[in-house]
Amino acid sequence: MSGPFTLPVGFQDPATPIMEGLIDLHNYIFFYLTLIFILVLYMFYRIILDFYFTIRYPRNQAICWTNRKDLRKGMKISHGSDLEMFWTITPSFILLLIAVPSFALLYAMDEVLSPLLTFKAIGHQWYWSYEYSDFDTTIGFDSNLVFEDELKKGEFRLLQVDNPVILPIDTHIRVIITSLDVLHSWAVPSLGVKVDAAPGRLNQAFIYLKREGVFYGQCSELCGVNHGFMPIVVKGVSVDEFLAWVSKELQLN
């Protein structure tokens, strides 16, 4: 259910395999977090039952809602070498179960591919500029925030830009990220990308868009007073539409 007053909960809809993997890994780990929470909560319950009431009530008095046999049974749950072994070995197995899928996803995120398209994202105070240099003539443009009084109906406040990044779907894309002044961070949640833009350094990320759409992001590094006013907009289009856009830009240049 969505609407103008609905509070968004959870992740944005994924548009790349990497983001799908991140969401799946989150749900996978959350299952173990739930089990751990229930187990620790039960241990707190047994500790309170075993120690608080045995101190508060002398042994020669009856406890209204339990008996001595239950207390002796509870001591085995909160004390003993068996419990210490369980408390040590079980987290190790849980870490192994979490590590295997997380390492696989980390490898996929850092894998270097042969891209069909490369573009550069350059951070400035406080806007982004982009360059496509795979063609005979470099296509470059600045991407600035559209201010509130210039927004059209249906556009998002503090997220709309005048020149979005145009990318084709079903294509291996490499983005090279850098900065010309201070630290920035090129982050688009739906794409599963969040890479720092450091002056004098080139960082890279790989994108494979699975569907068309418009995807929003923002600079995720505290880069100055106007940090919250340098959004990122990526528009995924078909390959034919992308080639038509490239031809138009080359003619203008």
Count of individual helical segments:
4
Give the integer mean of the pLDDT values: 86
Q: Helix fraction? A: 25-40%
Q: What name does CATH use for the topology of the largest domain?
A: Immunoglobulin-like
> What class, by secondary structure content?
alpha+beta
CATH architecture of the largest domain: Sandwich
| Number of individual domains | 2
CATH superfamily of the largest domain: Cupredoxins -  blue copper proteins
Strand proportion: 15-25%
Radius of gyration: 27 Å
Using the coordinates above, name the CATH class of the largest domain.
Answer: Mainly Beta
Strand order of the largest sheet: 3-2-1-5-8
Order of helices and strands: HHHEEEEEEEEEEH
State the total count of DSSP E strands.
10
Distance between the termini: 45 Å
Which terms would index this structure?
253 residues, Helix Hairpins, Immunoglobulin-like, five-stranded mixed beta sheet, 4 helices, 24% strand
Tell me what you see in this structure:
The structure is a single chain. With 253 residues, this protein is of the alpha+beta class. It folds into two domains: 17-110, Helix Hairpins (Orthogonal Bundle); 117-252, Cupredoxins -  blue copper proteins (Immunoglobulin-like). The protein contains four helices and ten strands; from the N terminus they run αααββββββββββα. It has helices at 17-56, 68-78, 81-110, 239-252, and strands at residues 117-124, 127-132, 139-143, 165-168, 172-179, 184-188, 193-197, 203-208, 213-219, 231-237. The strands form two sheets. It has a five-stranded mixed sheet. Strands 4-10-9-6-7 form a five-stranded mixed sheet. The radius of gyration is 27 Å and the shape is elongated.
